[in-house]
Amino acid sequence: MNMMDHFIYLLTTAVLRTMSFIPFHLGQRLGKILGFLAYLIPFGRRTVALDNIRQSSCGQNPNLSPRQLLRKVYMHFGQVLFEVAHILRLSEANLERYFVIEGEEHLAKALEKGRGAFVLTGHFGNWELLSAAITLRVGHTAVVVRPLDFSPMDRLISDLRTRFGTKIIPYSRGMRRILHAVKQNYAIGILLDQNVDWYQGEFVPFLGRLACTNKGLALMALKTGTPVVPAFSVRQEDGRYRIMIEEEVKVRRSGDKIGDLEENTAMFTRVIEKYVLAYPDHWFWFHKRWKTKNYCVLP
């Protein structure tokens, strides 16, 4: 990180820490206003998000137009910004006040097998709070991440993720570290809702379109026998998050390696889709989720 990047990191950290002193509920109201104002500013990722919504099954809701949904998305993530600012300052005891967990026993049961657990989730709700909450309850946790291109923001997010003890596993060097963490009975967060190149994924249905989805989770689950446990966070009316941990997903093991990879990847994706359909404003629509196309380049 060069001097300019370091300066930007320090400045951004100072701004967020200042924001953290705004009372939580006032911050959430200001976050909605900030999100609405951001929605009014046209820029590239807004176009990406609007196109994603229009071409997905979420864009076919007669009671909520794509633009109305996008506005709600902006307002949601405006609130997340203030929530993140608070997380950077909160102690473990104080953080517990901002979430409730349902289904914690499902993750505990999975970890009792001694092979770790893959926590299936996505860029949904407040996934950083989700990670912190699970770390507080479980202890040994890690998350597989792709470093951000903008190094000041990458460092800031790393500070947030490691604040309560979550370990970071870089995506580019993930497999060996993941297998090592599994042997130590870690709960490992996997965000499975980003586009990958065709050779890294399987084309599976997602929100009415085929999306190239990383097959790594299916591959590791089949290889290690590590349980896959879904977990998602949803904001409640009082501003707290309800963290829902589901029962272990029954991974298909038919002996057909190719078929099992595709079916399990599709099954994991359906779990994420279920939450996006139920709470479409909670999902991060700004990613080019359908960038990789399903066609053959050979004649």
Topology:
Blueprint (H helix, E strand, L loop, with lengths): L2 H17 L4 H16 L4 H11 L11 H22 L4 H4 L3 E4 L1 H8 L5 E5 L5 H12 L2 E5 L5 H12 L4 E4 L3 H10 L3 E5 L9 E6 L2 E6 L1 H9 L3 E8 L5 E5 L11 H22 L21
Helix pairs in contact: 1-4, 1-8, 2-4, 3-4, 10-11
Please, could you describe this protein's structure?
- The protein is 48% helix and 16% strand.
- It has helices at residues 3-19, 24-39, 44-54, 66-87, 92-95, 104-111, 127-138, 151-162, 174-183, 216-224, 257-278, and strands at residues 99-102, 117-121, 141-145, 167-170, 187-191, 201-206, 209-214, 228-235, 241-245.
- The strands form two sheets. Strands 1-9-8-2-5-3-4 form a seven-stranded mixed beta sheet, sandwiched between helices. A two-stranded antiparallel ribbon has the order 6-7.
- Strand 3, helix 8 and strand 4 form a beta-alpha-beta unit.
- The longest helix has 22 residues, at 66-87.
Spatial order of the strands in the main sheet? 1-9-8-2-5-3-4
Shape: globular
- The radius of gyration is 19 Å
Global mean pLDDT: 93
Low-confidence stretches: none
Termini separation comes to 46 Å
Strand content: 15-25%
Largest sheet: 7 strands, mixed
With helices defined by DSSP (H or I, 4 residues minimum), what is the helix count? 11
Structural category: alpha/beta
- Give the total of domains: 1
Element-by-element helix/strand order? HHHHHEHEHEHEHEEEHEEH
Number of strands: 9
